[in-house]
Design a protein that fits this description.
The chain folds into 2 domains: 6-88, no CATH class; 110-152, no CATH class. The protein is 45% helix and 10% strand. The protein has 7 helices and 2 strands, in the order ααααααββα. A two-stranded antiparallel ribbon has the order 1-2. β1 and β2 (135-142) form a beta hairpin. The N and C termini lie far apart (42 Å). The relative contact order is 0.12. Residues 119-134 and 136-153 have low confidence and may be disordered.
């Protein structure tokens, strides 16, 4: 079995996470866009997956010969990414993230682990184990406002 590739990750994001609509229309407010928004959003996302989060590093990836393997349609510079991110409306991004978190909670993706890093913040109530009379008891203790509640509000 082969490992994950950018095209498989894109298929997972579009089909399993159901974020194809967000990738097609992320809410950019550019008046005359010459570079499709889906290329810009996907390049930023794949840059984070590859741990290349700066716009200059994403530009280097997109302008290299690896562009085709990364499933990015065309090359562009870091100034195009900066212009795009300045005009990106945050509301569609919040809605897409809240929808993905809701689907993940519905599929019980966070139930077995309390140490998933930032993903564990999606649980508004954390199950905490306490020792009471020699046995483990699960109690529901409210955390500070979680990421999911802050996004949805």
């Amino acid at each position: 079995m082969s490992g994950p590739t950018p095209r498989r990750i894109l298929r997972y994001v579009c089909q399993c996470l159901r974020l194809k609509g967000y990738l097609q229309n992320p809410g950019d407010c550019r008046s005359r866009a010459q570079i499709p928004a889906r290329h810009l959003v996907w390049s930023v996302l794949i840059g984070y997956v590859l741990r290349e989060s700066s716009f200059h590093a994403v530009e280097a990836l997109v302008c290299s010969t690896a562009r085709r393997a990364l499933a990015v349609g065309r090359d562009f510079g870091d100034d195009a990414l900066a212009y795009f991110s300045e005009r990106l409306d945050p509301e569609p991004t919040r809605q897409a993230l809240a929808g993905a978190l809701t689907r993940a909670k519905r599929n019980k993706a966070f139930d077995d682990s309390d140490s998933l890093g930032w993903l564990s913040m999606a649980r508004p109530w954390a199950a905490v184990r306490r020792k009471a009379a020699g046995c483990a008891v699960r109690s529901r203790i409210p955390r500070e406002r979680s990421l999911a509640i802050a996004i949805m509000s």
